[in-house]
Design brief:
The complex is a heterodimer of chains A (419) and B (271). Chain A contains 16 helices and ten strands. With 419 residues, chain A is an alpha/beta fold. Chain A folds into three domains: 154 residues, 2-Layer Sandwich (Beta Polymerase, domain 2), CATH 3.30.460.30; 142 residues, Rossmann fold, CATH 3.40.50.720; 76 residues, no CATH class. In chain A, the strands form two sheets. Chain A has a six-stranded parallel β-sheet. Chain A has a four-stranded antiparallel β-sheet with strand order 2-3-1-4, with helices on both faces. In chain A, strand 6, helix 10 and strand 7 form a beta-alpha-beta unit. The two termini of chain A are 19 Å apart. By secondary structure, chain B is an all-alpha fold. Chain B starts with a helix and ends in a 13-residue tail after the last helix. The chains are: A alpha/beta (419), B mainly alpha (271). Chains A and B meet through helix 8 and helix 13 of A and helix 5, helix 7 and helix 9 of B.
Amino acid sequence: MQLSLVGLSHHTAPIEVRERLHFPEKDLPAALHALVERDAVEEAIILSTCNRVEILARLTDDADARSLLGDFLSRQRRVPRDLLDKHLYHHSQREAVRHIFRVAASLDSMIVGEPQVLGQVKAAYATGRAVGTVGSILDAVLAHAFATAKKVRTETGVAASAVSVSYAAVELARKIFGSLEGKTVFLIGAGKMSELAARHLRRSGARAIFVANRTLARAEELAKELGGETVRFDELLNFISRADIVISSTGAPVYIIKKEHGARFLAERRNRPMFFIDIAVPRDIDPALNKLNNIFLYDIDDLQQVVEANLRQRRREALRAEEIVEREVDRLLGRLKRLEVAPTIAALQEHLHGIRQQELERARLRDLSPEQHTAVEEMTRRLVNKILHGPIAELKRLPQEPNGLKLTEFARRLFRLKE
Amino acid sequence: MSSLWLWAAALFYSLGLAFALLTVVQQRQTWFRLAMSGIGLGFLFHFVSLVERGITAGHFPVTNISEATSLFAFLITAGFLLAHRRYHMTSFTVFALPVVFVMTLAAAASQHPSPTVAPILKSGWVPLHVSATLVGYAALLLACLAGVMYLIQERELKRKDPHAFYYRLPPLETIDRLGSQALAIGFPFITVGMSVGLLGAMASWEAGWVQDPKVAISALLWVIYLLLILSRVRAGWRGHKAALSAILGLAMALVSWGANYLSTHHAFLGH
């Protein structure tokens, strides 16, 4: 069995190369057919995302994976071989399994822990299965890769914290308020980023949204989009204390909200906490507001700092994830080794012929003439071989079937073959 | 003397604490079920030890420091389990369990056969006085622990540079709610406990009880407890101030507990 993975990713190739090699979804079935038509290719899937193009394949033992799959990619996407070779990597056997595990668990991603890549690997697998290029080995490898990705997700914090500024704002709001269910959001200024943050907040359960903007038309437009209401800009200071979360992004040259305003808001809302997010430059909100109890003020640099801390946290967690991956790769390879078809066939033959020999020994004790003995021996051997004929033919076909490994496992159990 | 059950309780609490630490430090939820099983088993054995102690002694087992400590630890665990049911705060375990464990251990280690118990401790009102007051203290202790958690998490959020605690502690509002609920539950108990003590004392100590320093300090503690609640309800103290005052309240309670040693009437065995 030769497992190989050939491809390129954002680690090795610039976008100019990646986009030339990218497979549109509709081309995939034809490409997979073309791939398995080559004699040396027994099973294959193609993973094509904006960050990577990779082929995972099971080849015959004597095939040269790198030149074979490299040649395929170059022909399919019409990219010159020498350009491709500069960026292509090739992993085989354990390394290939390890690589696809890491990709599925989002440890090889540009943003470690981002969740999309697992879905993309699953889609590649589904296409392979639908086209019929996924056999028993790839099926086992990928099923185990998905299980490992899930394990990494639940057992490490690799995907736990926000790594974009707008998500970091939502995460901070959660750390202050717990649930955002029913919270009120106030947007001062109608910038793109406030809109994005407001959308995230809304999706997390925030209820009412107020928008105040110098040009009323833009405020109305945004309020309509978000399902909120507008507040006149010169009246906003009278409204803000109703809001739990305030996002400010105006072009004002001086502070709109000063420290004494903050104290007034708190008195009006009986000290219920407030979260101010100031993404304006120059800033809209006096930084001194953060000194008041129950008020939390974050400007754009603060949010960036949280994002960076979260990224550091993810990287720490990624080290633990790598350990899980190594352990799971070992487990899978152990299982594959135990369930190879050729040893299973040999074990099955040995088992049945063993029984035959035992019974012949027993028969010899009775008085059979040599001629009779030869006849019995010949007869039983043919009998056993006839019984074996069907199972062996089936076993030989199993590697090409997606659930082949399970059936091999079952066959071993049925005949109680030792491992 | 029924020491074994209490030792077993301490052992299971320590196991629960160890797994809770693993859960929180490693952020691996899989350990937490083991932690809760440890705490649950500890709680069960603790209960058995209290019952057995009561049966052997023939009366409610709060006649010496060891027994009172044991009961107190038991009530804290009960409060913790209630809080856990409501809020599912994994990290709260790490704050509450050390207190429970140390107290249970201390109670187990200081067990000694009760000598002749002062007859007053057998009268009906004393168990009610002691246990209701202890429930009030246990609630105050949990509110104080919530206060500590609040201040740590608040600091993380004000400093804007998230560290280990930021990722592990629950949201501020949730911690604040836990603290205020603990006080709300504890207050009626401490009120009942102290009133019973007052009435009982008037009936049985004749004169003299008024000069007992413990009585004065307890009265002060009750007023502080009341202020803690009023400041939340009336003045809208929340978060930072509420957390600080809960911690202060517990400090007062510790003074009051210490006053047992000054008091003639609260020394459990009498002089």
